[in-house]
Structure formats: structure tokens, C-alpha cells
Amino acid sequence: MTSRLNPYLSFTGDARQALEFYREVFGGELSLNTYGDFGQADAPGSTGGEKIMHGMLETPSGFTLMAADTPPGMESTAGTNFSVSLSGDDDADLRGYWAKLSEGGSVGVPLDKQMWGDVFGMCTDRFGIPWMVNIVQAQG
């Protein structure tokens, strides 16, 4: 297996909903394992074992996105020192992702042509995850 780098997101109880939303955005195969699947249904804060211990979305475009609910008994700290970045030259795909990710969230930088020549935008989805989308424009 080749090494790869991909985001692993932490949630405070809505990892299932977030990963299902990302599957709607990007398509692909979603696998979800709950705390209950691993014998931790009675762990404090695990809500009967239904919280997600590990989830992974693998998309037709080759993206891999992983996520979990914060483990029972562990404090959740939302960070602001990261964004998930999508970039490429497929205008239609990237605009489609942008539309879905920004719906119900907030737009920090509208998706528009920027001084470096590409179309770029920043949004935070309805689950609080910050996204950057950069659509590379042909130079000419």
C-alpha cells in the first residue's frame, strides 16, 4: 500500500451525520464502526455504543476522509488551526462540492476569481469544518 495523507476529523456526537453528508457531497463508499461494535456500548458518554469510533469515506475521485466522535471521557477541543483544501482544474466538480459544502454553513470568502488568477473560496460547513476550494484556471 502506498503512503497517503488525509484528514481525520473529530466530532462531539455527530460524526455519523457529518460523514453521511460528505458522502452526499463527494459520493463514494462509507464505512462506519461504532463504539458498540468494539464492545464499548456501556462506556460513559457512548450513548449505547452508537457514537462513531472510526469512520472512513473513500470517494471515486480518490479522496479519503476519516472521522470519529470524541472518545468517551475525553475532552473535545475544537481547533481553528486547520482547513480541508480541495483543489484542481475540474471546474464543474469543484463548484458542485462548494455548493454542497457551503449550503447550511457560512461563507468566509466567496468562490470567485482571485488576484493569483484562480477561482477560490473559503467556507465552513454546517458541522463547523472549514473548507478551502481552489479551481485552477488555464493560463493564457
Automatic annotation (TrEMBL):
Gene3D superfamilies, per database record: 2,3-Dihydroxybiphenyl 1,2-Dioxygenase, domain 1
Origin: domain of life: Bacteria
Coiled coil: none
InterPro entries according to UniProt: Glyas_Bleomycin-R_OHBP_Dase, Glyas_Fos-R_dOase_dom, PhnB-like
Domain Glyoxalase/fosfomycin resistance/dioxygenase: 4-133
Alphabetized SUPFAM superfamilies for the sequence: Glyoxalase/Bleomycin resistance protein/Dihydroxybiphenyl dioxygenase (SSF54593)
Record's protein name: VOC family protein
Naturally occurring in which organism (per UniProt): Streptomyces vulcanius
